[in-house]
Specification:
By secondary structure, this protein is α/β, with parallel strands linked by helices. It is 35% helix and 19% strand. The chain binds 6-O-phosphono-beta-D-glucopyranose. 6-O-phosphono-beta-D-glucopyranose binds at residues 215, 234, 337. This is Glucose-6-phosphate 1-dehydrogenase.
Length: 483
């Protein structure tokens, strides 16, 4: 099943920080795949802006090397030279005056203009101010900003204010790359393009929801950033809360930017404060030659968490009494992200074998092997009475959609084309980000004020035992972390 390809309008995309890790690893390889897919018009141009002394040829060679490293299957792609021809390089000093007139001279006024701030948030204000002062960004221009968007409510507010001095909210695209993942968008398709689930999607029929985002990697290589963030700021405040929103939100009247984001905001505002007893933080220990968290970050006193598990409640009619159990961490048993909606059991069993009854579960696998699995009870085949067994109705999207469907576009590909198209639906609005910080701040503040250390856990496990107890004490179990 081939996806319909619609070319985007002609554009100039400027990437600030184009020589940095994110640009080389994700943004430029993603743009190359869209180019190879035929989505860009002839004239579309990508202008790299960074501080390094470099010319067009050197930058193109660097991106050729980046694609060979991060997307090796495409290193010899015949489309690569055509993509590299779209690239040019300008040396620009974000905090100084150098390079801005040159950048202004390169920009066309009659095409879509997008500016990707792939730089430290401390530079957002400088970039926005200079873009405005040099008359580079027209009223239709878009800016794209990466997470982390602040480290608490106060800093997020300040960032919003800094950007608002020069750009309207409709020009600001705050990236949460989880929203660009195909299966995350599929959550909305499953919920709102089918009649099947909605009547059951509430506290009457759902017992609880589990969301797991488990990674096998540690934090080596990003220690400086991570040790100041921790799993709560790095993953929960943004990616996991966004997943909660998509599961819990009311149907928006329309799949458009404000309708969808209004509904997500209502969910975030309805999140109850999490009491300390309902949250567990962990820090990975070392094993054999593998260093522990403290060694990885080079800070023997660090109390930063590499794992969080918590029980969340949403104070509204639909979700009254339904716990959402969330967990995420580094150095866990497997790399897997999934959402499991666990239904209640039937109110009365007509079978003598009621003890074989298990609750229905709808499991949405975000990665790897994206798909949906609905667990249902059936009769175990064979003579001699009615025995029940639970079986999965398993749909892998790759299998269901055929070979072309198997190629899931990377989140960045989708999100950058949305920026060019001017569609903000999958980007976070300023008030949404602030509401998420307002929920996370008291939890983080309590940790920072207290003296307790995160619970240690062995790498390759499913986290600290306390996280198991968090759910066991409610008479429930986490699903296994496995690929
Ligand atoms: C990033 C976090 O936002 O998401 C990383 O900063 C994390 O710490 C990553 O590893 C996970 O993304 P994905 O797409 O690999 O699930």
């Amino acid at each position: 099943m081939a996806s319909r390809l619609i070319q985007v309008d002609d554009f100039d995309l400027v990437i600030f920080g184009a020589t940095g890790d994110l640009a080389r690893r994700k943004i430029l390889p993603g743009l190359f795949r869209r180019h190879a897919g035929g989505q860009f018009p002839e004239g579309a141009r990508i202008i790299a802006a960074a501080r390094a002394e470099m010319d067009d040829a050197a930058f193109r060679a660097d991106i050729r090397a980046a694609i060979a490293e991060f997307d090796p299957d495409r290193a010899e792609d015949p489309e690569l030279p055509g993509f590299l021809d779209r690239l040019s390089y300008v040396r620009v000093d974000a905090c100084g005056e150098e390079g801005w007139p040159e950048l202004a001279a390169r920009m066309r006024k009659d095409v879509v203009q997008a500016f990707y701030f792939s730089v430290a948030p401390s530079l957002f204000g400088d970039l926005a101010e200079r873009l405005a002062r040099h008359g580079i960004a027209g009223p239709q221009a878009r800016i794209v900003v990466e997470k982390p968007f602040g480290r608490d409510l106060a800093s997020a507010r300040e960032l919003n204010q800094v950007l608002a001095r020069h750009f309207d909210e409709r020009q600001i695209y705050r990236i949460d790359h989880y929203l660009g993942k195909e299966t995350v968008q599929n959550l909305m398709a499953v919920r709102f393009a089918n009649i099947l689930f909605e009547p059951l999607w509430n506290a009457h029929y759902i017992d609880h929801v589990q969301i797991t985002v488990a990674e096998t990697v540690g934090v080596a290589g990003r220690a400086a950033y991570y040790d100041h963030a921790g799993a709560m700021r790095d993953m929960v405040q943004n990616h996991l809360l966004q997943l909660v929103c998509l599961i819990a939100m009311e149907p928006p009247w329309h799949f458009g930017p404000d309708a969808a984001r209004d509904e997500k905001l209502k969910v975030i505002r309805a999140l109850e404060t999490v009491p300390p007893a309902d949250i567990v933080r962990g820090q990975y220990a070392g094993e054999g030659d593998e260093p522990d968290y403290l060694t990885d970050v080079g800070n023997p006193d660090s109390r930063t968490e590499s794992f969080v598990a918590l029980k969340l409640r949403i104070a509204n009619w639909r979700w009254q009494g339904v716990p959402f159990y969330l967990r995420t961490g580094k150095c866990l048993r497997a790399r897997t992200s999934e959402i499991a909606v666990v239904f209640r059991e039937p109110p009365h069993s007509i079978f003598d074998t009621a003890d074989q009854q298990k609750p229905n579960q709808l499991v949405i696998r975000l990665q790897p092997n994206e798909g949906i699995n609905l667990k249902v009870m059936i009769k175990e085949p064979g003579p001699g009475g009615m025995r029940l067994v639970q079986v999965p109705l398993d749909m892998s999207f790759a299998e269901a959609l055929g070979p072309e469907g198997a190629e899931m576009p990377d989140a960045y590909e989708r999100l950058i084309t949305d920026v060019i198209r001017g569609n903000q639906t999958l980007f976070m609005r300023g008030d949404e980000v602030e509401a998420a910080w307002a929920w996370a701040d008291p939890i983080i503040a309590a940790w920072e004020q207290g003296s307790a250390r995160p619970e240690p856990y062995q790498p390759g496990t499913s986290g600290p035992d306390e996280a198991l107890r968090l759910i066991h004490r409610d008479g429930r179990r986490w699903r296994d972390i496995k690929t």
